[in-house]
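Quick one: structure for this chain?
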Amino acid sequence: MSKLPALSSEEVIGALRRAGFRYAPKRGKGSHSAFVGTDRAGRIRLVIVPKRKAVPIGTLLSILEQAGLSRDEFLDLL
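Got it. Here's what it folds into:
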């Protein structure tokens, strides 16, 4: 299992977009953005990303869980 680098919210959002997630404008409020997409099993996933210069590692792990992505899959998208 690879170690996750320190990432900004813009880098996380770019990886999610490459994974097929799209912006959900009516879901995100204030300092958070929402994205919707499907996982490998075809289930609809809603992912909330805080707008920050550096996303904390625990938050990043939660985002990966929400998106249904493994660490290695996410790193490949970067």
